[in-house]
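Thread: Newbie trying to understand structure tokens

Hi all, I'm a second-year student working on a class project, and my supervisor (Dr. K.) asked me to get a predicted structure for one chain before our next meeting. I've only ever worked with sequences, so writing a 3D structure as a token string is new to me. If someone could post the tokens and maybe explain what I'm looking at, I'd be very grateful. Here's the chain:
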Amino acid sequence: MKPEIFRPDAPCPCGRPTAYGRCCGALHAAFEQRGVLEAPDAEALMRSRYSAFVLELPGYLLATWHPLTRPAQLEPNEPGLTWLGLEVKRHEVQDATHATVTFVARSKLGGRAHRLQETSRFERVDGAWLYRDGDLG
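---
Reply by user tm_fold:
Sure, no problem. This is what the structure looks like when written as tokens:
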């Protein structure tokens, strides 16, 4: 975890030009304080999940995972892992309850750079967007 990122005025890890407290931090806080998921769309949820990976917020990650595909638990980030950035390539809405987001997340571990590209599927369930699954590549 990086405490400086938790400052509300710090840049948001998701890459938007907005402070963490007004971006992903607002979504994380709504969940932590009131137990509600408030992402307005699939892209906002995906960005908040990336930030939750950066900040190591497994409770938020599990809560935003569709119950049909949610793992029982998440492993913590490997020691020394540094998240380098997120680039959203495409956000497509199929209908009122289904959307996809294609993104690239970059990280570094043990001096080696890594690139994860995924097209993620999201579903709106009981008014909340949830991550269903995704295809790598």
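A couple of things are worth pointing out once you decode it. Helices lie at 24-34, 42-55, 58-63. Strands lie at 82-95, 98-109, 112-125, 128-136. Feel free to ask follow-ups in this thread.
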